[in-house]
């Protein structure tokens, strides 16, 4: 089975054809590999959203469940952006802490005793494994990670199941099916703040333009001075643009929210409802 999707990455949209080798499902990891080849965003740096839900790497996507013209939103984790442009990130945040280059330690097999738990720490394509006492905390794990990577605990951010557990949390409380996996990120809070603030400003300008376009369309409808075909094409395009903006606002809020960003999201949601109502009104009037 084949399905065509639109991958939305910021203001960039790219068409992608997905083919299920057998049945109707394709592994999400294969989707991410296709996107890496298309947009040069590493698999481990991708977060994909489809129909409001995240596509987990270890799951499959049922192509038969996708509606026509479906969009997949691509979020590039900030850590990946920092790896790609370390000089730019440091230049924009001279006072922010900068982690030392990550040099993975040689991989060795570990033995996990009965009173211990296994913890894997992943950084890009590198994985470190640790056998921890059942009482070990996240802070103690960071000390072990520092010994292997030369990255101080204060500059480490360990991501587990979408959250950053505090240093006093017991690692054992995070175990799922016998082990726990963390993604190792570096402290890039200032970089993230600047990036989201810049994106918020850009989205605000874009949203204001969309609102002005809607006001113009509404005026034409109220005057009954429009061609239905042309108007519906314009409205459909505007709906697509506002949906993309609203999804980008949601993605940015997932990274770091702010009152200005929430306002952009709320305004885009209100505008989308108004544009869809206008489309319905025009269809009904000329149905």
From TrEMBL:
GO MF term list:
cadherin binding; RNA binding
Note the Pfam families from the entry: ubiquitin
Ubiquitin-like domain ranges (all copies)? 27-75, 115-191
- The molecule here is called Ubiquitin-like domain-containing protein
Give the species this sequence originates from. Answer: Achlya hypogyna
Domain of life where this protein originates:
Eukaryota
InterPro entries in the record = UBFD1, Ubiquitin-like_dom, Ubiquitin-like_domsf
């Amino acid at each position: 089975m084949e399905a065509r999707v639109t991958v939305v990455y910021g203001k960039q949209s790219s068409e992608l054809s997905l083919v299920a080798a057998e049945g109707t499902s394709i592994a999400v990891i294969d989707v991410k590999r296709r996107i890496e080849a298309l947009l040069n965003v590493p698999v481990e740096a991708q977060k994909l959203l489809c129909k409001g839900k995240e596509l987990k790497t270890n799951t499959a996507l049922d192509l038969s469940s996708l509606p026509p013209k479906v969009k997949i939103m691509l979020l590039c984790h900030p850590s990946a952006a920092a790896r790609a442009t370390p000089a730019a990130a440091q230049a924009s945040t001279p006072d922010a802490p900068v982690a030392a280059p990550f040099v993975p330690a040689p991989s060795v097999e570990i033995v996990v005793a009965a009173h211990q738990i296994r913890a894997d720490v992943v950084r890009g394509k590198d994985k470190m494994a640790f056998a921890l006492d059942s009482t070990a905390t996240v802070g103690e794990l960071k000390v072990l990670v520092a010994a292997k990577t030369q990255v101080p605990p204060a500059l480490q951010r360990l991501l587990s199941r979408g959250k950053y557990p505090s240093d006093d949390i017991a690692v054992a409380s995070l175990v799922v099916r016998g082990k726990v996996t963390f993604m190792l990120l570096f402290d890039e809070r200032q970089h993230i703040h600047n990036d989201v603030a810049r994106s918020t400003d850009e989205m605000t300008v874009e949203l204001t333009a969309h609102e002005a376009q809607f006001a113009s369309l509404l005026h034409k409808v109220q005057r009954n001075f429009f061609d239905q075909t042309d108007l519906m094409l314009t409205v459909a395009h505007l709906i697509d643009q506002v949906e993309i903006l609203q999804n980008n606002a949601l993605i940015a809020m997932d990274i770091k929210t702010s009152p200005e960003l929430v306002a952009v999201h709320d305004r885009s949601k209100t505008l989308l409802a108004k544009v869809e109502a206008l489309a319905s009104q025009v269809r009904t009037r000329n149905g």
